[in-house]
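Page header: ASSEMBLY MODEL / two components / 669 residues total.
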Amino acid sequence: MAIARVAEPTGSLQDVKEQGLDREDLLQIYRNMLITRGVEERGHILYRQGKIPGSFYTGRGNEAASVGVATAMGTDDVGTPLHRDMGVHITRGVEPWRIFAQYMGREEGPARGRDGNVHMADLRLGLMAMVSHLPAMMPVAVGAALAFRIREEKRVAITWSGEGAMARGDAHEAMNFAGVRRLPVVFICDNNQWAYSTPSHLEYAVEHLADRAAAYGFDGVVVDGTDVLAVYREAKRAIEKAREGGGPTLIECQTLRMEGHAVHDDAFYVPKELFERWAERDPVERFRTWLRDNVELSDEEEEHAGSYVKKLLNDALERAEQSPQPDPETLHEGVYATPEDLDTPHHK
Amino acid sequence: MAEKTYLQAISDGLREEMRRDKRVFVIGEDVGVYGGAFKVTLGFQEEFGAWRVIDAPLSETAIVGGATGAALMGLRPVAEMQFADFVSCAWDHLVTIAAKQRWRAGTPVPMVLRLPSGGGFSGGPFHSQNPESSFAHIPGLKCVCPATPEDAKGLIVSAIEDPNPVLFFEHKHLYRRIKGEVPDERYATPIGKARIHQEGEDVTVVTWGAMVYTADEAAKEVDASVEILDLRTIMPWDRQAVLDSVRKTSKVLVLHEDTRTGGFGAEIAATIAEEAFEDLDAPVRRLAAPDTPVPFSPVLEKAFIPQVDDVARALKELIQY
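Prediction written out in full:
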């Protein structure tokens, strides 16, 4: 029995405008989705070239979900995106060259070579770096929301989880505490149907993960995670509700992880027909079609967006490859913070 | 200056910091209306309100994860585990996130985790542990273990001021049993500085927490001049003070209430062996709890926690070596 509300797909252009998006905003969303996909495609090539140590993860198929939510965030809001949420970093303004530097373990990546892949974030852009233990960042985001509530600030924390990680206790404690205190936090569950090789039916027994929200005393919403404007609409609604003291929302974005868990995994366990079916709903292609149908996206504009992204990524790769390796002499630095480290806007 | 219990000293230090700095808040189970299981925060909620003295659900993960997030947003959380033993439920947020955050992501996590620890009152396997060595092993965490009321106040102040996650191990068996003079004014006891509890010439005891008092009593039973060094904090720990004392007395007993294997005493003994071998007139002696869980029955617990007689015996053997 479903409890959560199932969100409508993207409506007319008029509806979209009423949500506060003008034509330029829509084109920006499109560019952010292209950059998101482009960064990960280029990353894949770098990996094949042997330039990325360790493993490599992408969020192919999740571009609409990540960009849609991040577009709905306010400047002073904060978030804890995960490894399928490159679109959040891009939308918040992390420069692609720094992401490539991060992939390659270079000094100028956000983690300065101390951590790899998407374990990065720039707190100046309101993002907190994920850890591998999923969804351990959920309680951390709840703590950020608690800080906003204590200081009576109108800010919201957004936190991500996959459908696999929703099986862990952290998710329960985070959502329960947030529900009890009606904290300004929005829980995003990217349900991409596969947790490594484990399918959804071995992770949870409810119809929708968003149904669980009712058990914590707040609303749950299920949204098509390949429909960027529907994701944006639901995220915006939830974020503004939280900002006004209405408490948390759990939004389940339904997608399919279009690649393996990581680059080493060919996802042989995912039925081919499932990939084929979801490929027809490719989020980037879907939004491109919508733009052509609704706001008269021209060939020229499309070409311009494509060449803009291509140049951005070419330049980014070049700059990242020039970024120095970290100096082993610095390994010991910064294990412990000094009082000077607190000299940031956050700690004033 | 006034005579206060160890518990009152912690409470006073914390209350003064909350009055001084609006960023400081308390979160834990039963810390508000009830004042905490041991009453350290008694009366705090009346004074500071329900959003600065937060009664959390029974959720150690959410408490420590939440404190981490609040610290990243610029607050100064002081989170309480009802018993130090329950920190196991919050391991990930302490060890995986808070400890590594500065080094990995460049963002400090200024938070304090209060951990009522230690045995001596039949608390059994889950209300009596001394898990400090587990956390001293984690780069990025600081561990403090005050023994006196004066240090309890000064170290809670330092812990709150510190820009790192600091674990504040407060020994439950000292809470109301130990009284001492505590300055009225605000002061910070430096983290990483040992205290000479008692000066001596013949043999050194290196210890911390409740074992300081066990060593003190044992020293009275031996016919020798015993130096008792109270480490006060074990991460960072005052290597220099230990080495200076060993160089003076040439004999050393490392004593702790935590279990022996992999206990923090092993690190101290290894450091002495590496750096002061030539100064020793006897092998470094370790005395600790045996490698078992903490037992419940008073008879068994007495056999588990190092007793005055055990320490006195070890000292006599060292002196006669």
